[in-house]
Records
---
Amino acid sequence: WQLHALRSFSSRSMLSEQQTFMNFQVAFDGEVDDILRACLLEAEDFANNPDHRWLVIWGERGSGKSHLCAAADNHLRQAGVATLFITAPDLLASLRESLEMQSNTEQESYAGRLRMIKTAPVLILDDLSAEASSPWSDSVLFEILDYRYRNRLPTMIVTNSPPDSLEPRISSRIQDTSLCVVVENAAPDYRRRPRHEKRTG
């Protein structure tokens, strides 16, 4: 039931359903890129053993970070683990929608949606910092991540921004080395790779 309930909030797409660890490309110009390989290994390690762990991957656009989010999500779901894979903009849009609906049902109410996000067995949050920042959005994201931080709930975060540049309270939590592994993905833009090195399935 958790898998079904969380599915309606997810940012899964036809493309993300096809993205796996097996088809994540670690080569650039015919040579294995050590940065991409390190990111792949960390994402696989998290997906194989997510309990009480956070993984944060940051770097420029187009470096394969979202592929690793989707791959971790697919891996965990195949193992029967309930996950929520969602972008920060989609997460905030879902909560705004629930405020506007003013529904009394648990799944559609603001409090219900917020609770499901905060307590998801595994949260995979893509594109943190891509959302339009405001006092409300900063407060909501902090509430979610602080809850998960205090309860040591498995969380994978991807962002284009250096951790130090994020909202200070969030930045502090995602750099706690007792809980988090932070990896910089400084690999070249996937979109610029040779055509034969691009493969999604």
---
Amino acid sequence: MLSELSNIQILSILHSVLPVCLLALFWSWESWAAFKPVEKKTRYQHAFHNLLLAILNTLFLGLLFGASVEITSRWSLEHNWGLLNQLPLGTVGKTIFAVIILDGWTYCWHWMNHRIPFFWRFHRMHHSDPYMDVSTATRFHWGELTFSTLFRLLLIPLLGLQAWQIIVYGLLVFLSTQFHHANISIGRADRLFRWLFVSPDMHKIHHSQLLQETNSNYSTVFSIWDRIAGTYRMRSDLKNIHFGLPDFDSPQWQTLLGMWKTPFSKKTSTQDQKRCQEP
């Protein structure tokens, strides 16, 4: 029990420290070899607003949910609830299965955020970023994160997930999202990398202003979900992509208050209305 608790504590520390380390790593990479150059002042202002939002979100979610994941997973284990508790797999097998099924769920959740108008109102704040870089990986509305956490809590007893398995997947998500949001390129290696994982080139298309491109490439860690669902899309002229949403790219929507207000704005466009109807 002490050993298990120690492992969870170690994973929790990694869960807190790794995002900061990755942020520093990819920020340095962007500074050294940016895919699309951005004026230094604009870059720093952009990152400041995104990271301030992320810090406030972390505090808010911590106060709102606290130890709910650990409590729910412990209850699930004690009552032998969930699919994983019924499978004759060892620890490694269950962890691999948990990561795969969580990533499949994350794909579905992302798809829902684009196709269901209510969820899109919150998720569009993430897409309203006109400068895509590593800080964009932290730019999510507290409303979207709240709904995401609630759905995750429902999954725990259904699948029999343990807190440490969710933390392990969370570490993979941090690594993947900061990598594929970063303003970088891995050149020809991207073609090979994206056969299994979401790559920077692949995710740049998802942040395009073009509706058919935004409604594609929903995967988070493994790219296979887009290939299975037929939502995979690529193009060659990546430097010609315009990021963001035309109706929310003005400076007033890039401040902390502007980002918070984005879901509640009555401002819509023809593109916004069609977004959730596009096949």
